[in-house]
Amino acid sequence: MGAWGENVAVTALLPLDEARARAVAAVAAPLDAEAVEVGDAPGRVLAEDVLAAADVPPFANSAMDGFAVLAGPAGRALRVVDESRAGRPARRPVGEGEAIRISTGAPLPAGATAVVPVEHTAERDGAVVLEREAPPHANVRDAGEDLSAGAVVVRRGTVLGPPEVAAAVAAGRAEVRCARRPRVAILATGDELAPPGAPLAPGQIHDSNAVALAALAAREGTQMVREGIVPDDRAGTEEALKRALVAADVVVVSGGVSVGPHDHVKPALAALGVEERFWRVALKPGKPAWFGARGSTLVFGLPGNPVSAVVCFLLFVRPALRALQGAEPLPAPATALAAEPIRRSPERAQAVRVALDTGPDGVLAARPTGPQGSHLLTSLLGADALALVPAGDGEVAAGEPVAVERIAP
Ligand code: AMP
Ligand code: MG
Prior knowledge:
With 409 residues, the protein is of the alpha/beta class. The protein has four domains: 12-31 and 181-324, MoaB/Mog-like domain (Molybdenum Cofactor Biosythetic Enzyme, Chain A, 3-Layer(aba) Sandwich); 33-55 and 160-179, no CATH class; 61-141, Beta Complex (Molybdopterin biosynthesis moeA protein, domain 3); 335-406, Beta-clip. It is built from seven helices and 28 strands. It has a six-stranded mixed β-sheet, with no helix packed on it. It has a six-stranded mixed β-sheet with strand order 16-13-17-21-20-18, sandwiched between helices. Strands 22-25-24-26-28 form a five-stranded mixed beta barrel. The radius of gyration is 30 Å and the shape is elongated. The two termini are 42 Å apart. It binds adenosine monophosphate and magnesium ion.
């Protein structure tokens, strides 16, 4: 190819950031919200602000097992007049010369202004002797100390995890409103593909992309509606895509988007009225990535090479799935220092699979996982993040900062 031809190829590649922006911009509005039981909500995206229905904790209580008393000096001998246990408050207040035995989390009795831990007391003849001073408010947890009534506990757009659902329950909720789960279809194209575990005929390989993409989609709170292997013929490709388009919010196709004579995905999608939004990105791996939409249905044509498919899912499909659920599409920018030199690619941004280690100085280091070929699934093993290295000459020297995006949410 001469210089002219090379130039054409170069200008035809869309910059990575622009491609990501188009994938996110294609989401016109988040999916409708629905009520979700808190136990089913982890992994889903909150479609409302959760407010505390009441103070948390609802009442002042003890931080220790010990005795509720009036604050005051050490050496006092107090009569034990009642007990306050978790879930069973004392029936009377505490006064001068008195103590009420109390458990952690039990309501502070009326009149009490401090709790003396049991370790700092001695019990003699029905009385308790305080071996230490009881400063005002010692070991008392106030009502509303964690959350005050009406406070926003978890914000709309948050991807819910164990802490957020716990906070929602403390705030009084059994259900929260979340965006509907995006319906995802995953189609793996290729005459060479055999299902997992099937004996391989000559020239066949196992379809590893479908399971990888399904697992990545599942992490985003999605619902799988169709999955399958699609042969490399025009009619079969169009038929499979037609069904996927009516069933799914997001169709993810692996393979068949390059320029070979057996790549039928693009013409089939065009025939089905899916409008191209980009094709070919200045990205390594992932150059043949294709994206389009039909109405509100998004279609991602990912390259078949296993690493390219995963990288393109992370960089294009994941942001779109988050936007569809009303979450922040892109992760917060983070940087790490290259643990070893990384050669730049002159024309394409690279998504280098790296392990992240925190050095003794607390600084994050990004260490490439090994050979980075787009067919080397092993380059994903042990990878914590993608280091996004812009196109350019030379190399990123060891110790230079690189942008990193975590693979696991
Ligand atoms: P394609 O994008 O269809 O040209 O495929 C590029 C490379 O990825 C070829 O080596 C394919 O055999 C391989 N490949 C395609 N689909 C899959 C798949 N589902 N699982 C594993 N490898 C695949
Ligand atoms: Mg193929």
